[in-house]
Structures are given as C-alpha cells and as structure tokens.
Amino acid sequence: MGHTYSAWSAEQGRRREASVKRAYKWYSQWDVLLLGVSGAGKTTLTTQLRNAKEGGRSEAERAACRGEVYEHVVRAARLAVEVMQSNGAQCAEQYNRENVEIILAYNLDTANLLYLPAEFTTAVHQLWADAAFKGEVYEYGGDSVLMDSAAYFFEEVLRIGAPGYVPTDTDIIRVYRNTIGIVETRFSKDTWQWVHLFDVGTWVPECKKWIQDFEETAIIVFCVALSDYDRASVDGKHENRMLESIAMFENVVNLGTFANTPIILFFNKLDVFRAKLAKLPLQWHFPDYSGGSDVDAACKYIEGKFTGVIRVHRSKMLLTTHIITATDAQTTKLLSDKLKRTFNATALEMAGFM
Ligand SMILES: Nc1nc2c(ncn2[C@@H]2O[C@H](COP(=O)(O)OP(=O)(O)OP(=O)(O)O)[C@@H](O)[C@H]2O)c(=O)[nH]1
Ligand SMILES: [Mg+2]
So where does GTP get bound (predicted)? Predict the structure, then answer.
C-alpha cells in the first residue's frame, strides 16, 4: 500500500511541476508548433496569418521576390511540358506544338529579372488553353509540390510577364520554397504579441532532441496535404507521402510530451484533392477505401486513418479537425479564430473553470 502511495505521489508531483511550468510560460508566451511533412502547407498558413495580422510585405519586399516567381513559373511550365511528352500526349493545335519548343528552349535570364519575354508568356498562356496540356497538369503533375500552384501561375502568366510586374502577396504565397530548420514568427499587435509561431520545416528525424524545447507548447497545428496520397514520400521509407504523414502524426500525438496539448489537425489542399480524386483513384494507393470519387467519403476515410493512430487518451476538446484550402483567404480567419478559441479554453481550464 505504502509503495503504491509513494509511486502515485511522485507521479502527481511530476504532473504538478509540469503544470506549474506550463502556467508560468503561459503568462509570457504562447508557443504554436506547426508540424507536417514537406509541402503540407505549414509556411502557407504562417504567411497567411502574418499577412492578416501584420499587413503584407512592402512594395520593395514584394519586388525583391520577382525572380522567385519567375523561376517558379518557368520550372512549372517546363515540368508540365516534360510530363506531357513523357506520357506521349500531343497538343491538338500546331501552334501549341511550337509553343512546347519555345518553353523547352527558354532559360531564365537571371541578370535581367524585369520581365519575362512575351514569346514565353504567350506560349504558356496558349498552351494553358489546350485540353491535352491542362489534363497533364492535373492528372500527372501530382508528384511535385511545384505543380500545386501551376494552374494559378499559368492562369496569371500574362500579368506576371508584363514589364513593371511586382508580385502580389498572393503570388508570393503560391511560390514553393522548402523551409529548412525551425522558423519563428512573432506578431506585434494586441494579444497576438504573446504568440510565437514555430514553422518546423524539413523534418528532423531525431525529433526527441529538439522537441524537449517545446514541452510547454500551447497548441500544435498539424498539417496534412489531402492530395499527398499518390505522392512519393520524402524519407523514402513509406509507400507514399500520406503514409509518411500518418506515421509522423502517430509519432507526435502519442508522445507523452504533448498528452495535454490541444492539437488542430488541418487537412489541406482540398482544391488539389478535388481536381485529382476522380482521375487518380484513392483506392489505387489505399486498397481498403471503397468510397470512389466522393470527396466527402474520401476526406472521412483519410481523417479516420489519422484519428485511428491515436493511442494516448485525447478528449474531443484537445483534438479538432478541419478540411481547408490554405491558399484561400478565409482559411486565415478559421485558423485565427481557432487559435483564439483554443487559447481561451486553455486559459479557462488553467484557471480551474473547466
Ligand atoms: N493549390 C494549393 N496549393 C497549396 C495549398 N496550400 C499550400 N499550397 C502550395 O503548396 C506549396 C507548399 O506549401 P508550403 O506551405 O510551402 O509547405 P510546407 O509545409 O511549408 O513545406 P516544407 O517547407 O517543405 O516543409 C506552396 O507552393 C503553396 O503555395 C492549397 O491549399 N492549395
Ligand atoms: Mg515550409
């Protein structure tokens, strides 16, 4: 009996110490940890929130991103053409066959980043109207994060190529740059001053080392790209990136460290998922799925795959799930409201009201 009592007491002491540490940290800093596999949308959510709370970049800052946008457009156009060719697809119109050659022959002139040549932008614009080309982008471009923004950039290519072009905040959000390491974002206004957002880029396999620095994390936002079901995994250990994402979630959610941390699970890239589900069946990659091309059924199935790996006790309040398109502006409001509500609920809980 005595042994049981002292073991229980030590455990209780450990918990009390953890909750005092957490409460102390709570009054000075609210850490939000953004996790997910590469390309899931963590930086997109961070940038959207930063733009909404702090205002977007200045004109000079946006102008400095022009080269990155050009590079993205040129790489995406070349990749789409190469994919089309390797699949043996042909454009219907003769002029589009010539446009293919123009795109393949064009190399970005990094010494002159003031505009894209009209010959190149017109070639992309005309090709984008060709069903064969469009089909390739949506059907076979799936294995590249670069291609998630391809439709947006091809749609906008004439504006982007024009002399005097300055990227908009939306253009910049659409460009993909792989985040290396952990990037912290702070805010300057109102209660958001206490929020420190940590965008965890390239996954560090020995997460046990750095994760200790985040023991008092207020909220975890875990991002999943719904469209990852047919994409190659980054670590090369899983059959596809969705399985890699499930494995990462399983690892994080069952870590004792975060047993009492609210988790917001975002199923992102609904727009890409919608466009590809009918053409690339989910059951090719997940044979036990039987809902066909019904987007709701497919989302429910994927959600079940994630919630099914939770082993530690986690009440409904601590895990919420949402299906989103991070590039849509209204998603920022959802994220912002969700963070605020979770902070408030946790504050009430810590004050003993819940
Ligand atoms: N179409 C579409 N594209 C999206 C969406 N969310 C993100 N993207 C694009 O997907 C690409 C990758 O998004 P990021 O936010 O950079 O992904 P990440 O999780 O930060 O990736 P890493 O830094 O590699 O870990 C970018 O080009 C985004 O613009 C979405 O909902 N729809
Ligand atoms: Mg990133």
Answer: 148-149, 268-271, 326
